[in-house]
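Minutes, project check-in

Agenda point 3 was the complex the collaborators sent over. CS summarized: two entities, 596 residues total, and the question is how they sit relative to each other. Sequences were read into the notes so everyone works from the same version.
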Amino acid sequence: MFPKEVSIVEVGPRDGLQNEKRTLSVDQKIELIQLLSKTGLNRIEAGSFVSPKWVPQMANSDAVFKALNPENKIHYSALTPNLRGLEAAIDAGVKEVAVFGAASESFSQKNINCSISESLKRFEAVFALANKNNIKVRGYVSCVMGCPYEGEIPPDAVTQVSKELVDMGCYEVSLGDTIGVGTPMATKLLLDDVLKEVNVSKVAAHFHDTYGQALVNLYTALGYGISSIDSAIAGLGGCPYAKGASGNVATEDVLYMLNGMGISTGVDMPTLLKASAYIAELLGRSPVSKVASALLAK
Amino acid sequence: MFPKEVSIVEVGPRDGLQNEKRTLSVDQKIELIQLLSKTGLNRIEAGSFVSPKWVPQMANSDAVFKALNPENKIHYSALTPNLRGLEAAIDAGVKEVAVFGAASESFSQKNINCSISESLKRFEAVFALANKNNIKVRGYVSCVMGCPYEGEIPPDAVTQVSKELVDMGCYEVSLGDTIGVGTPMATKLLLDDVLKEVNVSKVAAHFHDTYGQALVNLYTALGYGISSIDSAIAGLGGCPYAKGASGNVATEDVLYMLNGMGISTGVDMPTLLKASAYIAELLGRSPVSKVASALLAK
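CS then shared the predicted structure for the full assembly.
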């Protein structure tokens, strides 16, 4: 039941860097994305169009996108939380965007100041403008296996918002274990529910490794036929809800597991390690990736 | 097919500490083992009877064992690589020992200076003396999914030495992914072979997390019904074959996964975290456990 191929969505330059203390310069961000573009990855989330007042790490995403080569067949996407963000993304030449919904009411209120259904309603204008401009829209659902405010989240809450995002026009929904609390059993309960309403080809797994469970949860998701996985080079990004804890699962660790399972991704490990080494040196620390740490130590 | 209960074998005080640069004092080792003894763990590998010239970290294991309370129903075991080690262990009141075999000829030669079959032959005297003294013997098989010298190891090499160890009298063989290179598929190929010859109730999984794959490999092994897992508090122990890389899978991370799967262990997480915090402070670094890092950060 495992897929033969998996599409890795590299989210390090966005979800990763936005949770790092140190803000990179535009040139450094471009260099990182260009190194990633040589690895065989063909989906890279390269920035976010949000107020730099709230997310200074993502300032100047327009300059980043303008510098990327649109001819190289890589899908560079941007997070656009609202219409204003989408307009700015279009101006910068972005061809794919992502919107951000939550499966937890408290998280939605604290994070974007409105209810889940209000947030979906606001996306209508985003989808309309995206359609008009032939821009693909991906949907994130956060807190799918737990919320920092509410604790456990019932799977059907995830299913409902996932289905609505797909119905509104998302080509894929990415299920985010935002605080990394999921386990294999929670992953099963989640997917048993979500896949009743959303076709597996439209579901991606976006798991954080805060409790070290990301790979085993991804393995569980692969068993359901999920073939789209989000990860971040060098495990970039911490967890804002547990200081000192880790965030996104590392792309290197995901690739090592997939390689070992005979699942093809098109991504080359040695080239990926160059991007790891680059960003680790910039941030002045070891990659938060056991694979990168072991291989770079050799 | 998952077991309802798993027995965790805490190997931090031996396999962990012997690979740490810093050598703990006898009192510090005793304090660590006593903290671990309060957690609900009932199998703890507490030391090793080897020459302090080769493994200075394990010097004075006799003093450690003499200080442990034999009345508290916890099985404290010791690694005894040869007859001399076993004699010293008996003098210290040890009731359970472990012997160490390899599935790789090159590793056996470089590590214990003899072939695999010679090493098994040498154990005959160890088993004889152990039997005479009513001492249980556990067997380790190292390099079960890869060798630092030979690379891949064929599963039937593991099966053969595992079967011989059981035939010689080991109540359990612990399959060690010494360099942590295993993946779920390699784990399946290994267990498909080993379990043809050795009953699953006599097989333990001892996986290192050098490449971040230990939990997903353990999850795979649990699916085969394996119900004995080795792990080390705070992920103690590095990997002598890849400097800066990590070693044993952390007990906290294993426990978190098992708890999430509804598999009982009898081990209490908050009490376990006290042992984590103690050893991390002694070694002057964070635990090599994402669970401990996340929970202690709260």
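Noted in discussion: Chain B touches chain A through 37 residues (CB under 8 Å).
Follow-up: revisit at the next meeting once the mutant set is ready.
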